[in-house]
Structures are given as structure tokens and as C-alpha cells.
Amino acid sequence: MQAEALRQTARVALLCLLLLCCAACAKRAAPPPEEADAPLAAEPTGVRGAYPSRLPPMETTPVPLSPPQPADVSPDELDDYSSTPVLIIADPLEGWNRFWFGFNDSLYSYFFRPLYRAYAFVTPEELRSGLKNALANALFPVRFINSILQGRFKAAGVEFGRFIVNSTLGVGGLFDVTKGRKTIVEVDADGADFGQTLGVWGVGPGTYLVWPVIGPSSVRDTVGRAADWFCDPLLFVPGTATVNWITAGVWGGLRFNAVDDTLDTYDNMKKAAVDPYLAMRDLYTRYRQGRVEKRYADYSADWNKPDAE
Hints:
- This protein has about 300 residues and is mainly alpha-helical.
- About 60% of the residues lie in helices and about 5% in strands.
- It has helices spanning about 1-30, 35, 95-120, 125-140, 140-150, 155-170, 195-200, 220-230, 240-255, 260-270, 275-305; strands spanning about 210, 215-220.
- Helix 1 (about 1-30) packs antiparallel against helix 8 (about 220-230), helix 4 (about 125-140) packs across helix 9 and helix 7 packs across helix 8 (about 220-230).
- The termini are far apart.
């Protein structure tokens, strides 16, 4: 009991230290008042994700660059990528972030990728898919709690129902028997997390951060990841030190089993990027911004949707 209490105390102290560091980074990243009030260009220049130019606008005659839209196509059906506002994230620690980006790049390229290829060669695809389902099922508390915190009570009910069905009929979550089933409300396949919850309630991303092994993040998502960590049931299985080591090994194995999607995305990004660091920063920022906006849109749809007659 004393050892368990010491472990819990160490975890709480680690979270407090992390919160203090994140707050210091956010304070350091805040721009001076005169810079915050300065007008910014609508789109960044150069590589996407770079800071926008503050040069005065040139007096030129506007020339339409895009062809006219076909008459039989609705504007809502067209790609609106060019009209999406670009979220600029503060990166005052770029030198430090680039160092860890290079470290992670070498780790992914020369360790994780060949190790996973060997693992995939000897492990059937059906087993790897089942382990992914089991990991997603085990992370049900994270999705359930954050759905409630985001005000999506019906979505939380859907998550609970899926967990019960997959844990029983799906043999502990190895089979996702609820996949593709119609639900009363739309539920994000990637699930909810505490970083999204903070974003839905108006908390900005703060400073961009790159963590060893974990990869790209932000002040907001780092705090959210720590909160999600405390909701991960695989890290809080009671028992002896041997049992805890076995549990940690199972947790790491399930995480490693799901790394193939991350590696494929990273490889595609790296091949197409002039500066992989800027490309990754832009990709991550857009991805998290899109997740937060989608969660807020789903929340609005749930509360504004008329009851079925």
C-alpha cells in the first residue's frame, strides 16, 4: 500500500511540474501588445505554416486565378481548402523543437520502421487488427469522460453502449462488432480527448512543442495528454511490481502495434515536404484545429437537432 501511495504521489507531482512548465512556455510565447495589434496577412507566404508577412500590400490589379465553377456543381461540394483560415501557432522554441524533431526522425526511420516491418512480417494482419480494436476498446474511459465534458451526453451513451457490446460479443474488444452501425448521434471514429475538450471550451493551442518519441504537440495538447494519461486504465492496474511491469509491457505492445498508421502518414508527409519540420508543424496544427472544430460542430448539432416525432 505504501509503494502504491508513493507511485500515485509521484504521478501527481510529475503532472504539477508539467503544468508549471507549460504555463511558463505559454507566457513566454505571448506576443508584445504592439505586435498583437498589428494586422496580419490573410495567408502566410512561402512554405505553408510559416509566419505571415507584414509588408504593406502592393497596388496591383486583381486577376482571377481560379476557373469559373461548373453550373451543375454546388459550391458547398467543392474543395474549400484555399478559403480555410490558416491557424498560425507560436513557435518560440523552434531550435529546441527542431532538435527533437531530428531525434524522432532518426528514431522512426532507423528503429521503429524496421522493427515494425519485422513485426508485421511474422504477425498476421488479423491479429494486428484485433489488437488495435482491443486498444481502442480499452481507451473507452478517455472518450466517455471527454464526451461528457464536451456536453455530448448522447455521444457518451453511444460510447458506453459500444464498449459493453464490444467487450462481450467482441471478446474483450478484439472484434469491433459495432463498426458501421447507425447510432442516434454521430460519433468521431478517432474519439474525444482532453485536448479537444480544452479547445471546445475556448482554450487556444499555445506554444508548439515537440516531445521525444511522442512527437508534435502544443501546450494545450500536452496538458490534455497528461489528463488522458490519468484516465488510461492500463496504467492503473493494481498489483505487485511484477504485475505492473507486465501491464506496462502490454500497454507498450498495444501502442507499438498501432504505430503503422503513424509511420505511413509521416512517410507521405516527409516525401512531399521541402522542410519536413514546417510541414509537420502545419499538418499537426491543421489536424488538431479540424478535430476541435468538428467536436464543436457535433456539439452544436446535438443540441440544436429537433427531437424525433
